[in-house]
Amino acid sequence: MVETRRRSARIADAKIELLDHHTAPESADSDSNSSALSDIDESDFDSDVRPTKRQKIAGGQASRAVRKTRSTTVKTVTTRTKVSATTTTSTSTSITTTLAATPIAKPKATAASIQALVTQIFDCPFPQGNEPPCHPPHPHPLTYHNPLLLSSPTARKHRDALLTWFDSVSSSRQMPWRKPWIDTTPFVSSSSSATCPQDLKEAVAQRAYEVLLSETMLQQTRVSTVIAYYNKWLAALPTMQSLAAAQPEEVLSLWKGLGYYSRATRLHALAQLVCPPPEEGGYDGLLPQTVDKLVQLPGIGRYTAGAVASIVYGCAEPMVDGNVIRVLTRQLGIRGDVKSKEVLEVVWEAAKRLVEAVAWDGTDVTEDGREGKEPPVSDRPGTWGQGLMELGATVCLPGPAKPKCGQCPVKDTCRAYQEGVKIATQKGLVPEGKVTARKRVVDIEDSCTLCPLPEAEESDKQESDTGTKKRKQGEVSAFFDKFKTSGTRRKKDAAEDSDPAEPSSAAMEVITSHCCKYPYTKPKTKKLREEECLVVAIRRPSDGRYLIHKRPAKGLLAGMWELPSHTLPADLKWNDGSAAMKKDKVRMVLKDVLKEVGVSSWREKEAELGTVPWTFSHFKLAMHVWAVDLVKRDEVGSEGGEGNAKMKRWATIEEIEGENMGTGMKKCWELVKESRGR
Known about the structure:
Blueprint: H1 2-23, H2 53-67, E1 77-82, E2 88-93, H3 111-122, H4 148-151, H5 155-169, H6 185-189, H7 198-217, H8 223-236, H9 240-245, H10 248-255, H11 262-274, H12 291-294, H13 302-312, H14 322-332, H15 341-361, H16 367-370, H17 380-394, H18 415-426, H19 456-465, H20 468-481, H21 486-497, H22 505-515, E3 529-539, E4 546-550, E5 561-562, E6 565-567, H23 579-596, E7 603-615, E8 619-631, E9 648-651, H24 653-658, H25 663-675
Parallel strand pairs: 3-8
Antiparallel strand pairs: 1-2, 3-6, 4-5, 4-9, 7-8
Helix pairs in contact: 1-3, 3-15, 5-17, 7-8, 7-13, 13-17, 14-15, 14-17, 15-17, 18-22
């Protein structure tokens, strides 16, 4: 009873927090967040008069209308205001506000508003009785996103089904980093790793190194590509200690071709921090067990920390990558932008509660006995996390590939799948059964603030296409259904709870098309900035070597080798310039570059080879490539020495081929070789 009262109090506080967050302006000076009631002069009202329920509804309707970017009129709002200390007058104020066509900015997410979302979604009791399980994409309460995989009566059965499915399919996609779990119970439960057997400590340290390496390589890279690199890396650097002792050039060489080279440099830095003994601030070669400590290490974020903690140490920690985001947004039926902080935090919270439930599933401890206790250590958290990722990688596929919903072991708990079945039913492709959801009236205080309703009109049109007569008949049937005997209703409920037949191919096409709408990502409106640079391939006449530079140890393409390059001013458009201007610019760059390697006098022959476009995550780069041959003066000058060989040197074609270069610079180098007939 005490816990129930506490939960009710948390839910009430969450509703107040959400209402305040979504109806109040972000700041007093911001017009973009003003509500429909802001046109009233606040001096006309006493500060201690609270808004009526009708005012709240009006404000909420205005906020919803703003999100739809439509023009609307807010109806008359009746308020009570104090005229004197003894007299109260009821005043009717008509407010007519024409909302702008442009959407009003949504208030920034705060820790309090996110916690309120989490409380209202996950801490509310799961709907009981004969409430329809889905209502696409009409207004719905936040509790709609409480995962059926967590809270429904069949949740445990479906969680076990996913684990069983993963056990059956994991062998078909063999990966060298997938290995049986090492029982770390004595290791995790001990106060110090020094008290654990040395062989267990070494085995756990090696397993942690392998998991960290694989998870780092798998970021932004396909599994099929990573396998060969993973095996090559471990052959050269088999332990964390060997990685810590390696030279940066060797590390980058082993990573060559995987891209995103900062992953390799951070992995190297991490090993050098972890390997020293504790008295020197390290971890004696063993990755820490907790997420809080793991995320403090270079290159380890929230996902990688969760992967190490769950797969290696058996802790109930979530691991959320792109595949898991897709699976869980479909399971929860969230249509909000997955790049928004609110949606991501809700997904992470769902993942956290699910993995904790899975960890407890392996015990006989009841829910009452779990209060205030940490979930037990076992292989279940790691298996569950990998199972979700495998489901997203092979079954719950993104839009172009189309999800294979018929093969999904948890489709019956998937909101997106249920919504798709509902739409297919409206089209007459699925017999009406347990998904014949009725529209429900949603209290404005409980309505979902995560999901826009872009398809509401489309869904309304789909419903109208089924025919007015058929709809009216359904409404009449629903009315008389209230007066059926309890026995008749029990038979109907039992029929709705039975599993329907597998949808036809046409119905499945509708279902999967709907599932492809998840996850939703707001289209990018901001253009990438554009830059231009000059790349000069300088060849020395005596031995045919080329001058190459090494990039700084930090920043873009850190530690990579490249041909000398120079970023052009933003106001200089290379292709608009004359041939003379281009040659002058090349000679200016040439002078600065050669001075650094001791070349004081020269003649040159230059040729423009072309432009290589390359797109980074945050800007576009146009690389204008020139080839320059130095011609030695007879009377004076020098071809130059090696300079600082660590940062710049003359290299043969074969040596350049073996160096670590960014993919864009490699394309520039290929252009140079083609011009030389190589």
